[in-house]
Amino acid sequence: MSGATSDAPRRLAELEFNHPMISAFLDLDPGRFATGSARTTEINSLLDQAQQRLHAQPLDHRDRVSLGQDLQRVGSYLTTELDASGTHGVAVYCSGREALFEAIRLPHQVASDLVIEPIPVLEPLLPAPVPARVCVTLINRRDARFFIPADESGLAEQAFAQQDEHDRVRGQHRQGGRSEANYERSIEADVDAHLRRAAEQLFRLVRLHRCDRLVLGGPHEVVIRFINQLHPELRAIVDERELALDVGTSSVVEVMDALSPLQKRWHEMAQWQALQQLLSGLEGRQGIATGISETLAALGRRQVASLVLGPHMDAEGSVCPRCEQLYTAEHAGGCEADGSELQQLHGLRSAMIRSAIRQDADVVVLQDFADRPEIAAVAGVGAILRY
Hints:
It is built from 10 helices and 17 strands.
């Protein structure tokens, strides 16, 4: 089973499928499915629902037989091969006729589901619309600790490279008089030198690991001094919130836990900004598409920079197997571009996401704004256009 990597959605989106395939998702939330028996019950329920859906599908004999075998393969994997430790969900993509079987660990919870379509369901693999790569730096007058992206769901500590033993800031002098004042100034100069060296190393790390958000923690007065030492590129990505963590003793787990509220805020902000950008273009109809018909047309023209979806938006439709233009269920006849007979889809949502990924567009799901009336104003779906 592979880890959920940033290239998985694009890699799967680029595959061509001429037959229905299985996209299966299993919730492995430790709070609900910590025991083997609980997971077995969830797996059996998922497979029972899948059998019912398979029987209800209008399929030719060969596809039906092949999908039945695919279901057995998925079931065998989930019940006997899956290692559920250290993951919150799993996605499985299977098609015997297309010689595909891939299981992907998910660092986040996912609703258990199984879909049979000629297009893979990629939404559970999408990264959240937050800074994709966050660096955390804990800094005080003596020490610096850097936490850089290690994988899709974690951080790893990078040691601060002290130049030599004299880089350690000297202790306070207590003799008084002019010598004390001079010594105090020397200590503060040492602190500034320490912060400057930490800032230089941090700049190299952020560039090397392509971080797009920087979060700082430590004594507030030191953090402010440290920000003044940062390269302008780093100052531009510093988050306004500081982490209240002990610089010397905080573990990687504690750092990640402290990041959670910030990540939730970033997530909500990214969704709200995308929705507001759609709404701001409504009056002049410039740079946006709203509603399913306009959005499908924009996807077909490969104009989409960001696809914005309401959390429950979906509709039946069809796809041209040659040019992959998507149509609503109301469309009659073949493909307008090449006349091909259209392939029916039970849901356009997955096909829209796949099309967006193929043209390197962002996908923003408004999951934190399910009940906002603004979503209805754009009919549940829209696109921010490239030009």
